[in-house]
Amino acid sequence: MELKVALAKRRSIRSFLPKDVDMKTITDIIRYANMAPSAGNLQSRDFIIVRDDHTKEELCEAALGQEFIMEAPVCIVVCANLQRISPYGRRGRELYCIQDASASIDHILLASLDYNLGTCWVGAFHEKRVSDVLDLPDYARPVAIIPIGYPAVVPPMPPRMDIKKLIHLEKW
To answer: What is the set of domains in the chain, with CATH numbers?
Structure first.
């Protein structure tokens, strides 16, 4: 099956060229990320841009030694804002803000393609350690670390499950 949609080109990039990504490009990508849907349009997500090598090294350690975090010229840490979602109470804090952050993460991954940049959604990390490294307030919960840069290697598309196994009509 030939995939015709541009987003089919998205891959998890874990090897980056030693080439900087300018701040305007990163800001544009985050602007697109914030266009993602959000509960009540509260936009309960925040974005931390990390360029500092020492901070990226600490994030790498917090992320179980995923060294490509240090290799990327930029990382964006997407956080759920538990304070901004407070009008929705417990469900907002436990679900909506995570959905808001996740939608914006996907927008980052896809918008980066338009700039010929590679990304990887890193969710495996010690949350408390990332919070400490970035001096997050107690109402900000880190949801993902996204290394961004020019890909050194673009892997082939990994196998996908047969869509018939994933689709349920009317009921499970």
So the answer is: 23-148 (3.40.109.10)
